[in-house]
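Hi everyone,

Forwarding the result from last night's run.
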Amino acid sequence: MSTTSAELSGDLVIDRIDAGQFPREVVETIARGFLPLPQDDLIAVLAYLTRSPDSEIAAIARRSLADVPSRSIHGFASNESAPPAHLVMLMRASEDPFILEALIRNRAVPDALVTELASVADAAVQEVIVINHSRILRAPSILAALLANPALSADVRRRALEAREEFFEKKARIAAQQPVEVEVDEDEPMLSLSEEPIADLLEKAVEEQQSDAPPPELSETEQKDEKKLSVFSQILLMGVSDKVKMAFKGGKTERVILVRDHNKLVCSAVMRNPRMSVLEAESIAGMRNVEEEVLRLITLRREWVSKYNVVIALARNPKCPVGVVVPLINRLTLRDLKGLKDDKGVSETVRALARKLFAQRRIKS
């Protein structure tokens, strides 16, 4: 090659191979990885050659790409500053779920390519695609391609249908039924609510004396919020029954404080508050200063536990009961299983199950 090493780039090499400017023996040498290129450029060139019409060259390139350290390929796949064309080549060359997951999460990868992958992906990769809600919202064709995949697993099909219902069909129905949306002030308590949904909690509250447990603690940031301090002062003087009523009817400020109350009747009432949102549930799922009952109640709401961010928050929360976490671990991606199996903050039972599932999926992939 007449071009000096300093002048070489992945794009230049690919262009010249594509134009037939290199003899076959030179292309074979390149496919073996014997080229003075930066690591990312070499990965792109090898990925390009894995799809060579010359089957021998393609096989050599695949072997060379497999010899590149996985962490280097993963770093390249995760790099949002990498040329999109190079990321496309890698996605079409790789079958490693760990690498494909990084590419699917990489915003530089075109949605059209993820759509293409969704139609043929195996179970491990399908799972990564279906939980990438930001891509699905941006490109609904991904969901359609996934549902058309003949190898679609039953679990991913269920989650894909739930995503379609939640993000598109439900939204369309609401828009048709309520063309004018009324804005609600989240900080105003809902004083007119019927207390029938919390009748069982109020009945038990009457039987109790005012809780001897300490009031929920406020963070330093919350302590600087005058509104929270004012509400907190009111709560200190309340009996259990009044706390239950405020938990059920109150606005976001009241919920943030009362969900951490040590009395299970009070924090349970917060979880029944009709204004409790999915984002709040996700935040609470990661809290380590709430009662176990609160975390258990989150899993009883299908619309909450169907969200992947809620599931991973519960799985990582050491306060979450093992019996609650175990059924959720099977829904975690390979990447999150890898993190959970080494997380010393969770119980050994959870880590052991995460290790077992991680090993099983790595073998399948």
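Confidence is low (pLDDT under 50) at residues 178-185.

Cheers,
N.
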